[in-house]
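Q: Fold this one first, please.
A: Sequence and structure below.
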Amino acid sequence: MPEAGNICVLLQSQADSQWCKEKLAGLEFNFDLVVLDQLPDLSQPGVVLMDMDSTTIQIECIDEIAVLADIGEQVSAVTAAAMRGELDFEQSLRSRVALLKDAPQSILKQVADNMPLMPGLQRLIDTIHSAGWKVAIASGGFTYFAERLQQDLGFDHVQANVLEIENDTLTGQVLGPVVDAQAKADILMQLKQQYAASQTMAIGDGANDLKMLAAADFGVAIHAKPLVQQQAQMSIKHSDLDGAVCILRAAKMLAA
């Protein structure tokens, strides 16, 4: 995991912004450089939609469950390939969950009790709420963990996949439709309408987040896979979620 670093936000005209991005492409810095032609307008309603695993928290929950079920290597290899966009997400998720059949429900609590938050997460949530915006999670992970984060940190809405549990044991099945890439983009649009938001921001790290990032007015890749870094409007590699806080605070300062 990259260490937190500094972030520089350059605000240019649309033409200059594109020129800067082309000139800076391929160059490496020891800080994050974000080039934008506009900043969020915090005086208007907005919503921020975040991925969960490796975005709001520093782990992939399914991999941690698998470790406790003694099938860690088998599952983590599939997870990594799916996040790189090498496998169909729904198929890979269902195949990984199937491997968890007969695992005790208690291991979910073990993982939830030890989820390491991404640095800057609470500051980001507080900054979003202080602007009167809403913040939500759309995850290809599981409701068990998303709902814990909502309870502990104050997310306005969470949506994820439901693990089927019978007699305190995982059945190896996911209930209902899978939250995949298209579902995340759809959730963003639904929340925009629900909260009457004029602006949207999305934050994620994997190939499953690409449609959500593209659908948002401001798409932020955080410690993302190479494919996602290339396609996202903004990419944070050296900082953490404080990088997103910086973008919002810059917007507030310029509007003052």
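Q: Good. Now the second chain.
A: Here it is, same layout.
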Amino acid sequence: MPALIIFASVILIIAAEEIVRRTPKKKGISGGLDWRIKKGVLTLSGKGPMENFSSGNRAPWGVRIREIVIGEGVTTIGENAFAGCERLVSVTIPENVSRIESHAFAYCDNLSEVIIETAKEKIKIGSGVFPENCSVVYKAH
């Protein structure tokens, strides 16, 4: 009986650690950028490029965001940065962003419009960045 209790306790601890590990954080630092989530809105601030992400190195903010605010100091949107964020409907990318890496918004199935606040020739966009049904509008100031 004591062995069964110990075994069950170990299983519960492992399960709890897995739940904590998978629960997205509310704020942090990624690369050189600060980020914070409040009521589904992700705000990125700081200066410089965003780091790239992959299946082995996922973005720390998770996929439950519905809106993104990109600060004026952010220069690059990283690879797979918002991949799978199905709640996103529209995104505005400020003119200070000069590069959007591959698959940054891949599998954001409800993303219907992206507004890029710079001329098309002033921004480099990687492959598979936006979903097929997404409209991309360039608005140079």
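Q: Anything worth noting on the second one?
A: The two ends are 73 Å apart (CA to CA).
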